[in-house]
Design goal:
By secondary structure, the protein is mainly beta. It has two domains: 3-353, 6 Propeller (Neuraminidase); 363-450, Immunoglobulin-like (Sandwich), CATH 2.60.40. The protein has helices at residues 3-10, 86-89, and strands at residues 16-22, 30-37, 40-45, 49-54, 59-63, 77-82, 91-100, 103-114, 117-126, 141-143, 149-153, 171-175, 197-200, 204-210, 217-222, 228-233, 269-271, 277-282, 292-299, 304-311, 314-321, 327-333, 339-344, 348-353, 363-367, 370-375, 382-386, 395-399, 405-410, 420-424, 431-438, 443-450. The strands form eight sheets. It has a four-stranded antiparallel sheet with strand order 1-24-23-22, with no helix packed on it. Strand 22 (327-333) and strand 23 form a beta hairpin. It is globular.
Length: 451
């Protein structure tokens, strides 16, 4: 282990401003972002604009072909995400509000990114029913290891919606990547229930992320006056709003005296007073403890960024940074382990720095042959291949970027411990490598950066 890695294990995490990449005169009300590569990201502006930003050249380009949006209140163009197989299908997904009979609602759509244009953009979901208010749409988008589309649909500031399975409001929604309903969704076939629902009893979910190794879904939501929550989201679970809450109405009156009830889930942690959490990302640390997860999240009302550490899905510690700097709207970790944030008041895209050794994202590939993950990535010496769903592979080839095979490993089932295999590349020089799992019928390729 390097000296810097040893030091980081003994220190509480820090976050501070490294660099302002885009300032208030270059953007207006940014809302969501996602990375295409370590050097390139997409971000939305609430007014309906989508941009591509290249970090190395500091260039911003507007993407055409975005849908018409309703921008009243908290509505507009909201989150953006790319398909797990973006490198081949180029699908970009957007969440946004639309107007229609009875008011407005949340919609999800996707299009193909061709250069700087979204082509063939199609709406694949709309939350029902439409409502006359203009607040609490959600909506964050993520994909799980099986390419299911997971996103939040908030309760439109009408409390009772969250407990009603007959509508999409106050719910986490789970779809196939084309917008169809997975056959194993928990409420498929339940009389009167919307089959798209995955969980319910949510208020206003503004952060959602899926752990790329465990496939666990984590989400945070705004409470009213107090009672913001971070939850582990599981199928069919009821998260309680408004039957249980740690918050009060904005006028100080009581919503309920109950903070727990049978059949309703408790949060991993809650905030009183509210910080209005917004944006949520997992920070993968080198040599972190087993079953430990580190999150970074923004805060709107709190005007700060927080680092939350959990272990075994229990809260361990929370650290706060950059208080009163701005309203933090979104946070993301790039594929090479850098932490970025979008802010309002002032509007900006910023790069942060930490005293921890961040290893970046888990590399993952999905296809007809199954799902395979590689982590940590970047790697110092040893990485793990999780090939639990891969059948029939007989060789792992480690190649340079030109495709030259540097090392070849024969694969047999007994090399995998519960579907995982560790590979030592400490003898290879720093750089980018291709890790190829091969069989006679197919191959799966992952990218790995050696530090």
């Amino acid at each position: 282990m390097s000296i810097s890695a040893l030091k980081s294990l003994a220190q509480a995490p820090t976050l501070e401003l490294d660099k302002v990449l885009l300032s208030s005169n270059e953007m207006s009300q940014p809302w969501g972002m996602c990375f295409i590569s370590a050097d390139e990201l997409l971000f939305t502006e609430k007014s309906g604009k989508l941009f591509r930003y290249v970090v190395s050249t500091d260039t911003k380009t507007q993407i055409s072909g975005t849908p018409a949006v309703s921008t009243a209140g908290q509505g507009g163009l909201l989150d953006v995400a790319i398909h797990p197989n973006f490198t081949t299908n180029k699908y970009v997904y957007l969440s946004y509000s639309i107007s229609g009979p009875g008011g407005s609602t949340l919609a999800i759509g996707r299009g193909v990114l061709n250069n700087n244009q979204l082509t063939g953009f199609t709406e694949i979901f709309r939350a029902l029913p439409f409502k006359s208010g203009t607040n609490h749409y959600g909506s964050r988008i993520a994909f799980d290891k099986d390419n299911h589309l997971i996103f939040s649909s908030s309760e439109r500031q009408e409390q009772d919606n969250a407990q009603l399975l007959e509508n999409h409001l106050g719910k986490i929604i789970r779809l196939n990547d084309d917008g169809s309903v997975p056959s194993d969704n928990p409420f498929v076939g339940v009389n009167g229930a919307k089959p798209e629902i995955y969980s319910y009893g949510h208020r206003n979910v503004q952060g959602l992320v899926i752990h790329p190794e465990t496939n666990k879904i984590y989400a945070h939501e705004h409470g009213p006056m107090g009672g913001d929550e971070l939850n582990l989201v599981e199928a069919a679970n009821n998260y309680g709003w408004p039957k249980i809450t740690f918050g009060k109405n904005y006028n100080g009156t009581t919503i309920t005296t109950d903070t727990a009830k049978e059949g309703m889930e408790q949060p991993i942690r809650y905030w009183v007073p509210s910080i209005a959490p917004c944006g949520l990302a997992i920070v993968n640390l080198q040599n972190q403890q087993a079953n430990e997860v580190n999150f970074v999240l923004g805060a709107l009302a709190g005007m700060q960024i927080q680092w939350v550490k959990i272990k075994d899905d229990k809260h361990v510690a929370t650290y706060s940074f950059m208080k009163n700097y701005a309203r933090f709207r979104d946070v993301e970790v790039s594929p090479d382990g850098k932490i970025y944030a979008l802010t309002e008041n002032p509007n900006s895209l910023i790069l942060l720095k930490t005293n921890q050794v961040v290893t970046g994202l888990f590399e993952r590939s999905s296809g007809n042959s199954g799902t395979v993950s590689l982590y940590p990535n970047p790697v110092t010496d040893i990485f793990t291949i999780d090939a639990n769903d891969i059948k029939g592979k007989d060789e792992i080839a480690i190649c340079n970027q030109q495709g030259k095979v540097l090392r070849s490993l024969n694969v047999s089932d007994n090399l995998f411990d519960e579907g995982k295999m560790k590979i030592d590349i400490s003898d290879l020089p720093s750089g980018m490598y291709l890790i190829i799992l091969r069989s006679k019928e197919s191959s799966t390729t992952l990218k790995c950066r050696k530090l």
